[in-house]
Fold this sequence. Notes:
Chain A has 5 helices and 5 strands. Chain A has helices at residues 21-28, 80-87, 97-110, 116-123, 133-141; strands at residues 3-6, 9-12, 47-50, 53-56, 69-71. Chain B folds into 3 domains: 2-57 and 445-583, 2-Layer Sandwich (Aldehyde Oxidoreductase, domain 4); 61-144 and 196-244 and 250-283, Alpha-Beta Complex (Aldehyde Oxidoreductase, domain 3); 289-444 and 590-743, Aldehyde Oxidoreductase, domain 4. In chain B, the strands form 7 sheets. Chain B has a 7-stranded mixed beta sheet. A 5-stranded mixed beta sheet of chain B has the order 9-17-16-15-10. In chain B, strands 18-26-27-28 form a 4-stranded mixed beta sheet, sandwiched between helices. In chain B, a hairpin with a 2-residue loop joins strand 22 and strand 23. The interface between A and B is large, with 53 and 53 residues.
Amino acid sequence: MPEVNVNGHAYAVHGAVGTTLAEALRDELSLTGTKVACGEGHCGACTVLVDGIPTLSCITLVHAVDGAKVTTIEGLRDHPMVYSFVRADALQCGFCTPGQIISAVALVDSKAAPSTEEIRHAMAGNLCRCGAYPKIEEAIRTWQD
Amino acid sequence: MARLIRTEKEVEGRFEEVWLVVEEDALQQWPAGAREVVGQPATRVDGLERARGEAVYTADLKLPGMLHTAVLRCPYAHARVARIDLTPALARPGVHGAIGPRDIPQLEEECGYQGTAVAAVAADTFEQARAAVAAIEIEWEQLEPVLDPDEAIARKQLVGEPRERSRGDLEAGLAEADIVVEGEYRTQVVLQSSLETHQSVVQWVGDTIEVYTSTQNIWGVREEVSAALEIPGDKVRVVCHYMGGGFGSKNDADDFTFIAIELAKRTARPVRCALTRREENIASGNRNATIQRLTIGAKADGTLTALGGEYVNATGWGGWSTPVEGPMQQLYSCPNVKTTTWGAKINQPPMKPFRAPGFVEGTFGLESLIDVLAGKLDMDPLELRRKNYAGNDPSDDRPYSGKNLMECYRRAEPHWERRHDVRARSTDTVKRGVGMASQVWYGGGGPPSYAWIRVGSDGHATVVTAMQDIGTGSKTAMAQIAAEELGIPLDHVTVTIGDSARGPYASLSAGSSTIPSMGPAVRAAAADAKRQIIEIAAQRFDLEERVLDITVGNVVSADGNLTVPLTEVLGLLESAQILGKGARGPNPTGMTVLTFGVQVAEVAVDVETGEVWVDRIAAIHDVGRVINPLGAESQIEGGIIQGIGHTLSEHRLHDPRTGQILTTGLDAYKLPTIADVPEIVSELIDQPDEHLTNLGSKGLGEPPIIPTAAAIANAIRDATGAEVHELPISREEMLRALKEAKERGRIGAPKEREGHRAPAGV
């Protein structure tokens, strides 16, 4: 039974072998802020931090993160990046937004003031069908304001 | 007072004559320009809960005891179920129910497209349901698919009747033309690709069915379910508080909702039925492919004399034939126009509306050929467009309620002027150019729509209406409108939406209609509440009502002698509330209500590889009064980015022999990413439409995607002389067009004048 620390709380996960991290978070722990949009690792909506690294939770088995420290959007609810996304109008329908914010937080954790090219590189794996991209770029550029 | 009128109602370019009960709209429009709240940039009232992952979408809903559904869908483009046995599925672990053809009309034996729903299983987990579906014994009789739209039309295999629209005499117009250009344009199938897939969670509570669904049309789903189940509308409760994108594809209840309802009935449990991404890419709708065979005749001075179009909508197995001819009918003043539009029924999944259905495709064809004409006339494309400006609706000569397209053209000038500098930056292998295209579309909304408002003693107000916010920010706009009318700060307004049992009838969110339909009703409700507050204040302070107003949270008298906080008046209510109600009034009679705009694109083309980059797009649109400039800018950017995907990368492919769909995942179907976004400059005319409602606002959801493809194609032509005729402009299409241009002579030289041929028949 894998033990995972999610947002500072330790959980023993009961899911069968083959359960993804996204399923464990959403179905077992009821942390539904992490969204699943494709279930195949192509869209980035399910991105969470595993030991600080942005990770696609829909194609990560929960048994593979035994002992790891997982951060979901619920663990970042008062992060300045959340407010920066709202301020910049960097979301429309909002379904991809938690994943976008996780990727953005990982980026600024490694470099507080990334260049436009660095933002585009780091965020290219997070699809937004509404096309909030210009505002997402702005939110990441101005997150410390 | 309620009034019964016979009127034309439009949704997504489809018109029908209906009886409507409307209430008069007695409010005067606010003067043009930004006000205290309306016209000021506002962040989303529901931004924080969405960003924090607290918003509960249909995808997040987990009802106690809820079962999960998997659906057996036809794997072939055309097939018949020869034999089906659900028994093995029912024997699988965790399974509580299974249904097949004949159990409900949405499950079919005759399958006209890959993805037709045939059977469904409900189980404790989705994995169990999926395993049970795999255990269903089924034998297929495969049938020959019809995949070529022209062949379908030749066989008279049609969706709807062919639509002929004509004015003047096309042949006479061509005869008097000094120059005639023609071209065939093709557009591809693209997918709405909402990130929250189509889905419903349903449960029976007594004799009421509760339907939690990801929808753009709460009241439409209620109506469909009520009709299908033959139960009263109020026994159907439809709920959608947050939804993860629709783009036109979520206007119906659809098979998944009825599957869930039937399985919930049989199992006496709540049931979820959600499409997987693979199902979504096949069976949830698409923007259908088109073939457009176009002819334009003009005088040497650029005056259009004839417009002819033979249009084919490859609608798939169902759906409807979109107004792809609309731009040719309505964009330019031209006395002789004839269009015929066919809906070809082929063995592909049915279309569903996708952001300005028909007009996106039709604008690509028409506006591309207009630039070809400009090239042959050696005329500035902007001047050619101005020359043929339509003062009245050219299709029926009705006046426009408001039209500022000339102002859009004027504001486009500085962007258009950049073309000399842009071209000058070309190199031997990378050519640069600038192109433009105009936009026309509906977006006026209409009645009926209703809103309630309650104002408490603390000076806070709640707007209640059963509309939906599909991510466009309409909830925020409603809060702004109510705050403006009531004279209170934006953060004193809450908006409660998304539940047919908890608010009055509201417009669907399609056809760019939410703000123009709902906004005036919300303002009317707020005005009704404000009137009552002033009545109370007049009695309390012994003043005449007509000298009182509410501004910035205060009740004030015209002479300035009285300024008391609103809460002092409302405090008299203690825990009670002022209740206001409002309705959307009628649209102006005898007038055409449309939205307009122009976009100017700058591109770079690598003439060796065929790669195209969009560097910059300037968008200028006229949608009447702007409620929220920040949200409006987001709509424009989002529309343009989807337009770029449509133009350059998105393509739902099928095997031309078997009809099998090849792009079922988001790896193969290429949506734009943040790295594909150009510089976007957006501008709105922001002039209230003086004849349209108490707001003068039209919708902005769809207009920005309409001209993008044509503007890019025209910029490519400007850069290279190559004429692209197909979307997406893949490298193959770009290299083909470059080769063709080279064969025509020096790159960039205008094409030789051709003799006129009648439009190719279909």
